[in-house]
C-alpha cells in the first residue's frame, strides 16, 4: 500500500514539475525580451506585459482572418515587433540623452495607451482563443498524460532559445550585440551605427513578448488586462535571473514556473505569491540576482 | 590629411577647447603634448565625434567630420585607440579583433587579417581564445592598437598608449609605430611621456588651456628644454 502511494506521489510530482516547465517557458519569453532591452538600451520597459497582451490580440486577429493558428503564431509577433520598431524610433529615441526616468515613464504611459487601444478595437470583454485542433488532446509521457499544447509551447520556446543562442554566439550580428551590451561607445568608434542596432534589439524584445502572448493565449484568457498581471511576473523572473542576463532569464523563468507549480500542488492558495517569496529569498542571498553582475545600476 | 580649424568643445557648461587649430600631414607621426587637462584627450574625442557640443571644423581627407555621427569616421580610414583602451569585457582576444573588422573594406579577409596581426603581435597570437580583459595591461594595450589597425586605417589617433606599460613593451610599441609610419600609416600621438614621443615623431604640437601654443619639428622641440619646461612640466 505504502509503496503504491509513493509511486503515485512521484508521478504527480513529475507531472507538476512538467507543468511548471511549460508555465516557465512563457515566463522565459517575457523575461528574455525585458532583459535584452534592459541590457542593451538600459530601458526598463513597463509596457512589456502590454505588448504580450497585444501579441495575444494580434494572434486572435490573424487567426480570425486566416483561420490558421500557424499564421497567427508567425505573423502576430512580427506585427507587434514592427509596432515595437515604431515605438523605439519615434517615441524612445527622441528621449536619448535625457534622464533615464523619461523612457521608463514613457513606457509606463504607453502601457495604458495599448490597453485602451485594444479596448477600442476589440472591446473590453475577454476573447476566446481555442487550442488548435492538431495540438489539442493529451500525450502519454510514460509517467502520465500531459496536454499536447503545453508540450508544444515548451518545444517552441526551446527552438527560440537555440536560434537566439546561435545568433548571439555564432554570427557577426551576435558579436555586435554582445559587444554593444558591454560598450556601445567603442562600437561607434569602430564604425557601428549603435542606434540602428538598438532599434532592432527593441523590436526583437517586443516580438519575443508578443510570441509569448500568442503561445499563452490558449492557456490563459485573452483580455485587455492580461498584460498587467504578467508584467509583475516578468519583472520577478528578470530580477531573480539578474537584470540584463539572458542565461538568468532562462534559468529563472523555468525555476519560477516550477516553484509556482509545485506550490500549487501543496498549498494552492499560496501559488500566486510563491514567486515573489522566491524572489525575496534569492535577493536576500544574491542581491544582483542569480546571473546578474554586482553593481549594475538601473 | 586631418585639418582641425577653430575647434571649440564643451563638457557641460565648461568650455574646454578654444578655437584649436592643427594639421596632421599624411605619412607623419605628430606628437601632441601638453599638461594634464590641457585638452589633448578632448581634442581626440571631438575629432572622433564623441563630444556632443563642439564647434569649428574638422576635415579628414577633405570630408567635414563635425555634424556627422561618430560611426561615420571608421569607414573613412580614421581609427582611435582611447586612453582607457576599451577592450570589451566578456569577449575573447579574437572577438575583440573581429570588432575591428566589422566595417573593414571588403578586400580584407578576416582569417588573413587576424593571421597578420598574430605575426605582428606574438603575445596576442598565443592568447587569441582567451577572454581579453584577463590579460595584463600591456597586452590589452597591444590588443587595443591591433584592433585599431587591423582594418588598415589611414590615420590612427593614439591617446597615451605608453601609460602604465612596462618599459620593454613601450620600446616595442615605439618600433611598431615607426614601422606603421614606414608603411604609410599616419599617426597622431598624444603622450605624457614627452621624451619618448619626441623621439618617434616628425613634428610636435603643444597645447595648453585648449589652444595650440607651439608647433615645430620634433627635433627642434626636443632641443628646446625651456619651452618643454614651460608647457609640459607636470
Description:
Chain A: This is Branched-chain amino acid transport system permease protein. Chain A has a two-stranded antiparallel sheet with strand order 1-2. The model of chain A has no long low-confidence stretch (mean pLDDT about 90). Chain A has about 300 residues and is an all-alpha fold. Chain A has 2 domains: about 35-225, no CATH class; about 225-298. The termini of chain A are far apart. Chain A contains 11 helices and 2 strands; from the N terminus they run H-H-H-H-E-E-H-H-H-H-H-H-H. Chain B is of the alpha/beta class. In chain B, about 35% of the residues lie in helices and about 25% in strands. Chain B has helices at about 40-45, 95-100, 110-120, 120-125, 135-150, 165-180, 195-200, 220-225, 225-230; strands spanning about 1-10, 15-25, 30-35, 55-60, 65, 80, 155-160, 185-190, 205-210, 210-215. In chain B, a hairpin with a 2-residue loop joins strand 4 (about 55-60) and strand 5. The longest helix of chain B is centred in the last third of the chain and has 16 residues, at about 165-180. Chain B starts with a strand and ends with a helix. The interface of A and B includes residues 188 and 190 of A.
Topology:
The complex is a heterodimer of chains A (298) and B (234).
Chain A (H helix, E strand, L loop, with lengths): L1 H40 L6 H19 L2 H24 L8 H22 L15 E3 L4 E3 H23 L1 H11 L1 H6 L4 H23 L9 H16 L4 H21 L4 H15 L13
Chain B lengths: L1 E10 L2 E11 L4 E5 L6 H8 L5 E8 L2 E2 L13 E4 L11 H7 L10 H11 L1 H4 L11 H13 L5 E5 L7 H16 L3 E5 L3 H7 L2 E6 L2 E7 H6 L1 H8 L2
Parallel strand pairs in B: 3-8, 3-9, 6-7, 7-8
Antiparallel strand pairs in B: 1-2, 1-4, 4-5, 9-10
Helix pairs in contact in B: 2-5
